[in-house]
UniProtKB/TrEMBL annotation:
Gene3D superfamilies associated with the record: 3.30.70.20
MF annotations from Gene Ontology: 4 iron, 4 sulfur cluster binding; metal ion binding; oxidoreductase activity
Database matches in InterPro entries: 4Fe4S_Fe-S-bd, 4Fe4S_Fe_S_CS, Fe-S_Ferredoxin
Organism lineage: Archaea, Candidatus Bathyarchaeota, MCG-15
Source organism of this protein record: miscellaneous Crenarchaeota group-15 archaeon DG-45
Protein name: 4Fe-4S ferredoxin-type domain-containing protein
Segments forming a coiled coil: none
């Protein structure tokens, strides 16, 4: 995002609309920190600027990733859909991606309002590589080498996003090992992440919950429950 210096009158109306604090007001000048800006376009879409001084230039690679991961109206070129994750992660309603005995994980890094650097996304993906099955339709997976968890294009590491979701799955038997790895790597990154666990219920019970609690983890059962109305294929 850019500010037209000739139009801007320094009114500061746009400052509060930046979710990551990239718009700075110093003396009579308002500027955008290009390193912090995630190209979410929230300031522009607010329509708050009385002078129409905000504008978004055409974004080249790899900066375009910021918009793809941060602006919910921008489609990812690989998946063809907008959003940071996949619908099936939340519903399991069509393909039956998560079967009995499996544990799905959704690691949302940055959480809208905090942001994350792709270097931190790589640290988490690399810690999981070789131990989990990454979701192929996920936009993060499309950028990494699944065997190593490293981004194939190293220029991506300098970019930031409002948030990015790593989607993967493992078995219930390896689930606790993965949770311990995530706890360790969380100390090495400069952002936050929420961790969603997906597990097929047996009756009214969540099989993996007992294992988590026995290992010292405290799950919060406040998520989504799918009743199978979509008749999954598996």
């Amino acid at each position: 995002m850019r500010i037209d210096r000739e139009r801007c009158i320094g009114c500061r109306s746009c400052v509060i609309y930046c979710p990551v604090g990239a718009i700075k007001a110093e003396d009579d000048e308002v500027r955008i920190d290009q390193d912090l800006c995630v190209e979410c376009a929230a300031c522009l879409k607010s329509g708050v600027c009385p002078q129409d001084a905000l504008h978004q230039p055409e974004l080249g690679w790899p900066r375009a990733l910021r918009s793809q991961f941060s602006d919910p109206l921008v489609a990812h070129p690989v998946t063809g859909i907008s959003g940071r994750g996949t619908a099936e992660m939340k519903t399991n309603d069509v393909t039956g991606r998560f079967r009995e005995g499996e544990v799905g994980l959704a690691i949302e890094m940055g959480r809208p309002g905090i942001s994350t650097g792709f270097a931190d996304v790589e640290r988490v993906a690399a810690a999981l590589a070789g131990r989990v099955e990454f979701e192929p339709l996920n936009p993060v997976t499309a950028l990494i080498d699944e065997e190593t968890g490293r981004f194939r294009d190293r220029s991506v590491l300098k970019e930031r996003a409002l948030s990015a979701i790593i989607e993967c799955k493992t078995t219930e038997d390896r689930g606790i090992e993965i949770l311990k790895i995530l706890k360790e790597v969380s100390e090495e990154i400069e952002t936050v992440f929420s961790l969603c666990i997906i597990n097929r219920c047996k009756g009214f019970d969540v099989p993996f919950r007992e294992r988590m609690e026995a290992a010292g983890f405290t799950p919060r059962i406040n998520g989504k429950t799918n009743v199978g109305l979509g008749r999954p294929l598996a």
